[in-house]
Write a structure and sequence with these properties.
- This protein is mainly α and about 140 residues long.
- The protein is built from 8 helices and no strands.
- It has helices at about 10-20, 30-40, 45-55, 65-80, 90-100, 105-115, 115-120, 125-135.
- The longest helix has 17 residues, at about 65-80.
- The radius of gyration is 24 Å and the shape is elongated.
- The termini are far apart.
- The relative contact order is 0.10.
Length: about 140
């Protein structure tokens, strides 16, 4: 059995999970690596969190075309969705609009263009309305 003297969390984990399987085992290194990968490997919740964090940190640089930025933003949003995180339509649109770094007057003009009744009837989502408004106001 391993003797964990340094207080290492990794050492303690290995000791707890597979300590009795390591002594005199030619495959000990592979067993340790497999155990650490299972414990510290990326899980679905973490992957979703990290993808959402990237999306929330996204910001259009001044001077970058809004339409070009939307393509980049949609890729980040797609990564979030692919990790099982659902973005509600209005929230998705508002996050994208905020990340465009527009002047307050531009944001107000875009928000004034939104028709919530279309969204409620399923004709056009708020997100798509914001995308279209951004193209018109660029």
């Amino acid at each position: 059995m391993m003797n964990v003297q340094d207080g290492s969390k990794i050492g303690a984990l290995v000791e707890q999970e597979i300590g009795d399987q390591i002594d005199n085992n030619e495959e000990a290194v592979e067993l340790i690596i497999t155990t650490l990968e299972e414990y510290y490997g990326e899980n679905d919740a973490l992957a979703g969190f990290l993808a959402l964090n990237d999306l929330l940190d996204a910001n259009r640089n001044v001077g970058k075309d809004v339409v070009d930025y939307q393509v980049e933003w949609d890729q980040l949003a797609g990564a979030v969705t692919s990790k099982g995180v659902t973005l509600e339509d209005k929230i998705k649109g508002f996050i994208m609009l905020k990340s465009c770094n527009l002047e307050e007057t531009d944001i107000k003009m875009i928000m004034n263009d939104l028709d919530y009744t279309k969204s409620e009837n399923g004709k056009t989502t708020i997100y798509n309305q914001i995308r279209s408004a951004l193209k018109r106001h660029r």
